[in-house]
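We were asked to recover a plausible sequence for a given structure. The inputs and outputs are reproduced exactly as logged, with field labels preserved.

PROBLEM: sequence recovery
POSITIONS: 453
GIVEN STRUCTURE:
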């Protein structure tokens, strides 16, 4: 089967063959049975219209979702599908509970109402994808990759809209971060191809919003090395060796040696997802990954909450297939194997194809992320050779510098100052301002006028 990352992508005849199979093997509950009155620990004053459950894709596969409706005017606001990256990280565990959803898990196992949630602007749909991730289940171990993930996500959307028909034809957006730099454009490509020749498509895709995305390692890697060196993470010698050897062959011995030197002897226990974040109290490597501004680690508390039986029951989880060692990001032994070669594939041809369709496409990047640095993303965009419509300028939030922006023909890049890999977690207020601008496709706020002396 042709790779999704090619410029041709999937074609409609393929899905005309697949969809009857999905229809024949699917069994879906109605929306009423998917409704959640309240989650364990949910504050009494934090009511939200929410639904969760499974959509069966095949006899062996069913995908788990959580729908959080907009806090006001839900029937008129758009629908946003959020996909977390990895590959293999739960959109419920990451995107919903740690970034843009209405609740945050407290250390005592209770939920707090998040002061800033994207459901003020849109209906939020979180999907655990691919299979084996989070609460999405299958009884058999199978190989996963970009093609199967895009195919399954498309099938999910079509079937999910039968359960929630009020969202048919609604303005629809795709969002995600990190490896969702693959998921989001590839799913968008499938949707666009499926909508060809349809005047009023059921999946009414309007745009994409991708944060710190993995798009093309080959053109972007020099930006990664630049970030390491500019932030003092590696020596001059290692930087020069990375430029010398890794630009020629990423699998070469010289490149591998440079990476080993950086990791073993130079970088130390730095938080790759936010190089300026402080560790949690116990100073473990696990806790170094994510630390919220108020002093406790969201990852550990969220994972503990989602492992609870009462939480899973309220979420309508099929506990038969959820392992006791449930994790927010599934490892290969936890029912997920992902084709490693897909991680090296460039998604730029897909992105260029989508730009040509006129879809609204925004990419945002936290400036303190070492996993997929801003410098890497800027090099990826440069490889697209797009015409600059509005050159790099600072944008402001509450009269303070919040980052920078550049608008290209068909694409907008937003840099968020001082944010790590998960921008909505590290800079929630700035991220919401960006999201509002994205939905209206309006430029970010420019600097206030200079005061005359």
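RECOVERED SEQUENCE:
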């Amino acid at each position: 089967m042709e790779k999704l990352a090619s410029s041709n992508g999937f074609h409609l005849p393929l899905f005309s063959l697949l969809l009857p199979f999905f229809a024949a093997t699917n069994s879906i509950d109605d929306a009423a049975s998917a409704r959640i009155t309240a989650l364990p620990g949910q504050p009494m004053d934090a009511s939200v219209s929410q639904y969760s459950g499974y959509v069966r894709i095949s006899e062996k596969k069913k995908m788990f979702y959580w729908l959080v409706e907009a806090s006001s005017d839900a029937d008129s606001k758009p629908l946003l599908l959020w996909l977390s990256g990895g590959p293999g990280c739960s959109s419920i565990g990451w995107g919903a509970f740690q970034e843009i959803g209405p609740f945050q898990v407290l250390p005592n196992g209770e939920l707090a109402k998040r002061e800033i949630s994207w459901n003020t602007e849109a209906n939020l749909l979180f999907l655990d994808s691919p299979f084996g991730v989070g609460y999405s289940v299958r009884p058999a171990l199978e190989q996963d990759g970009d093609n199967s993930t895009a195919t399954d996500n498309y099938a999910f959307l079509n079937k999910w809209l039968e359960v929630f028909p009020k969202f048919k034809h609604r303005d629809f957006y795709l969002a995600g971060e990190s490896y969702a730099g693959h998921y989001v454009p590839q799913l968008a490509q499938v949707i666009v191809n499926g909508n060809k020749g349809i005047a009023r498509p059921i999946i009414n895709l309007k745009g994409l919003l991708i944060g710190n995305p993995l798009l093309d390692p080959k053109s972007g890697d020099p930006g990664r090395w630049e970030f390491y060196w500019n932030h003092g993470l590696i020596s001059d010698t290692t930087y020069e060796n990375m430029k010398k050897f890794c630009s020629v062959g990423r699998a070469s011995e010289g490149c591998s040696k440079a990476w080993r030197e950086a990791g073993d002897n130079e970088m130390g226990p730095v938080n790759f997802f936010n190089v300026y974040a402080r560790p949690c109290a116990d100073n473990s490597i696990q806790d170094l990954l994510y630390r919220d501004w108020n002093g406790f680690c969201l990852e550990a508390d969220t994972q503990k909450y989602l492992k609870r039986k009462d939480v899973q029951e309220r979420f309508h989880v099929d506990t038969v297939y959820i392992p006791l060692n449930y994790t927010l990001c599934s490892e290969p032994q936890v029912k997920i194997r992902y084709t490693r070669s897909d991680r090296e594939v460039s998604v730029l041809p897909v992105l260029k194809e989508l730009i040509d369709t006129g879809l609204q496409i925004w990419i945002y990047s936290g400036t303190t992320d070492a996993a997929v640095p801003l410098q890497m993303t800027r090099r990826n965009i440069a490889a697209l050779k797009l015409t600059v419509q509005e050159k790099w300028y600072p944008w402001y939030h509450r009269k303070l510098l919040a980052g920078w922006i550049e608008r290209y023909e068909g694409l907008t890049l937003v840099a968020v100052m001082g944010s790590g890999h998960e921008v909505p977690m590290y800079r929630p207020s700035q991220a919401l301002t960006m999201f509002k601008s994205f939905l209206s496709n309006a430029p970010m706020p420019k600097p206030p006028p200079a005061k005359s002396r």
